[in-house]
Amino acid sequence: VQLQASGGGLVQAGGSLRLSCAASGSIFIIDAMAWYRQVPGKERELVARMTRSGTTTYSDSVKGRFTISRDNARKTVDLQMNSLVPEDTAVYYCNADVTSQESPWKFTSNNYWGQGTLVTVSS
C-alpha cells in the first residue's frame, strides 16, 4: 500500500493551500484517513482525521480554518487549508488505516504513512 501526497508549497500568511493524498495498492477497505504535521524538533501531531463514515476530528489550532474531505471510491483524502499562519509551517503527512485481503479468508490491517509534503507559510 502506498500513500502519495501532493499540494504543498510556499504561501503567504492569510493564503490557502489544498493538500491531496491518494492511496494505492492492495486495498480492501480504508477506515480512518488523516493528516498529521511535524516541525523539526517536535513530535508529529494530528491535524485532522476522518473516519470512513465521515466523522471528523480537528486539532484546536486548525479548527475553523482547515477542512478534511475524502472520496472513498477514489481512495483519496484532501486537506483544504485556509487563513494560513506561519505557525502552520511544517511537513504534512497523510495517514490511513488500511485493510488488505491476502486470501479469500485472510485480512490484515495496517497503518500507513505518505512521504510528506512541505508547507511553508511566510509572514
Provide a descriptive summary of the structure in words.
- It is a single chain.
- The protein has 123 residues and is mainly beta.
- Helix content is 0%, strand content 62%.
- The chain is built from no helices and eleven strands.
- It has strands at 2-6, 9-12, 17-24, 29-38, 45-50, 56-58, 66-71, 76-81, 90-103, 106-113, 117-122.
- Strands 2, 4, 5, 6, 9, 10 and 11 form a seven-stranded mixed beta sheet that branches. A four-stranded antiparallel beta sheet has the order 1-3-8-7, with no helix packed on it.
- The model has no long low-confidence stretch (mean pLDDT 96).
How many angstroms does the end-to-end distance come to?
A: 37 Å
Apparent shape: elongated
Q: Mean pLDDT, as a whole number?
A: 96
Low-confidence stretches: none
Q: How much of the residues is beta strand, in percent?
A: over 45%
The radius of gyration over CA amounts to: 15 Å
H/E order of the elements?
EEEEEEEEEEE
Classify the helix fraction into a percent range: under 10%
Determine the number of helices (DSSP H or I, runs of at least 4 residues): 0
Brief overview, please?
This protein is mostly beta strands and 123 residues long. The protein has strands spanning 2-6, 9-12, 17-24, 29-38, 45-50, 56-58, 66-71, 76-81, 90-103, 106-113, 117-122.
